[in-house]
Design brief:
The chain is an all-beta fold. The protein is 0% helix and 44% strand. A hairpin with a 2-residue loop joins strand 4 and strand 5. The two termini are 30 Å apart.
């Protein structure tokens, strides 16, 4: 192994139909014969990250049926907030990642996804956070974007890319979408008519260098079992929402490199941008938290409440300017034990380079050029002492000798970009 001068030390260190109606008990929890088996998360909290914030990332938000309260997710915990803004109240805590909360039609329960039992699943919880119940019990499935049926008896959710409906009194769930092929369904939602389920559909879950469009909207008729296409936009269409009066469709789409919300009068088909731009969408990746964060109509249908730019906004359907909903959250994120290992690092003038790259011999076979520690060295063959050919503090890669062996061409790379360079094989100032 080549021994090279130690220029610096580096420290590396490494979240359908519906079922036949069943009698609904006064509380979804009353149907339980016994508490669900508690599997839990194997990693126990050993530290916590505590701070105060007025902003968050990728926060899904919903409005209570009475319009007085918002519920949202932040760093894996659920919070409530007065609809006009103010101080957020934390509902959940601990190592579990709780996300995408949605109010039940009567405002008494929240549906959300969580890994609190050791796997990603669908849960419901009382709005005070005191009672919770597991609706699904899967070990290797993804659950995304839950939504209540208008009668409050079921929750529909994307499970592994298909829409499933779960009875809140119990059961294994019923598959709603049965379309053949690689279609994936996300972001199901209802208007006031429980007959129709709107959703976003994607052909396959994800691929490299995906061409647009990625998503389009569809609607499922629960009485006839038929599906219909609702959109055909080049910028895709996803995360639909229906106004409380059933007259307006809102959905997200991309125009150029930016994302916004569009509105459509369902009767006339007339569309326009409601707000543009908003938070960049996630449609080109695996949308494990949907393609954009969840948002919601206000109960009177007069506005959309959403998050973008790290903050909450009330966006009037009239086209008036959005109004910020300020919030302050006291965050207390549980963190597992510190993962720390001690490795000896040589600090002698020379040491053994453990990775040699791009080694190439000179045309006469008497020297070799190579990259070690992101710098180019030249050494005589065999057993010569490696020596740098530049003094630059940049990454140097892929050396190539000139035919006469007098110069070496190579490429550089920094955070700002790279160049094609050449330098004397004896060392000097690169060009």
């Amino acid at each position: 192994m080549a021994r090279v001068p130690l220029a610096r030390n580096r420290v590396l260190f490494a979240a359908l139909s519906a079922l036949s109606a069943l009698p609904v008990l006064s509380s979804p929890l009353a149907a339980q014969a016994s508490a669900p088996k508690k599997v839990g998360l194997p990693l126990q909290p050993a530290r916590s990250a505590k701070f105060t914030t007025t902003q968050g990332t990728w926060m899904s938000v919903d409005v209570s049926p009475d319009g007085a309260t918002l519920v949202f997710d932040l760093l894996g915990d659920l919070y409530t907030l007065p609809a006009a803004g103010g101080t957020a109240t934390r509902l959940t805590s601990g190592m579990a990642y709780d996300a995408q909360p949605r109010y039940s039609p009567d405002g008494r329960w929240l549906a959300f996804v969580s890994d609190r039992n050791g796997a990603n699943n669908l849960w419901i919880m009382s709005v005070d956070g005191k009672e919770s119940r597991l609706l699904s019990d899967r070990r290797e499935d993804d659950f995304i974007s839950p939504e209540w049926t208008p009668d409050g008896k079921y929750v529909i959710v994307s499970r592994n890319g298909k829409l499933w409906m779960y009875d809140i009194t119990g059961g294994a769930g019923v598959l709603v979408t049965r379309a053949p092929g690689p279609q994936w369904y996300f972001g199901a939602t209802f208007g006031p008519d429980p007959r129709y389920v709107y959703y976003a559909m994607r052909i396959g879950p994800w691929q490299y260098n995906a061409a647009m469009p990625q998503f389009q909207l569809g609607v499922y008729d629960r009485e006839t079992g038929t599906t219909s296409s609702v959109s055909n936009r080049y910028g895709s269409a996803f995360r639909p929402a229906i106004s409380p009066d059933g007259k307006t469709l809102v959905y997200a789409s991309r125009d150029g490199q930016q994302t916004g919300l569009r509105t459509r009068d369902i009767a006339s088909g007339v569309e326009k941008w409601l707000i543009f731009p908003i938070t960049r969408d996630n449609q080109e990746a695996i949308p494990d938290m949907d393609a954009i964060p969840g948002y919601s109509f206000t109960p009177d249908g007069g506005a959309i409440v959403m998050s973008h730019g790290g903050e909450f906004w009330r966006v009037p359907m009239s086209g008036a300017a959005p109004v910020k909903i300020p919030f302050t959250a006291e965050v207390d994120v549980a963190v597992g034990p510190e993962v720390k290992f001690e490795y000896p690092i040589e600090d002698t003038p020379t040491f053994n380079a453990r990775q040699i790259r791009d080694a190439v011999p000179s045309p006469d076979g008497k020297r070799i050029a190579f990259t070690a520690l992101d710098r180019i060295y030249v050494a005589d063959l065999a057993g010569g002492t490696p020596r740098r050919v530049t003094t630059d503090n940049v990454g140097e890669y892929y050396p190539a000798w000139s035919p006469d062996g007098a110069q070496i061409a190579y490429v550089t790379w920094t955070d700002e970009g790279g160049y094609l360079m050449k330098v004397s094989a004896a060392g000097g100032t690169p060009v």
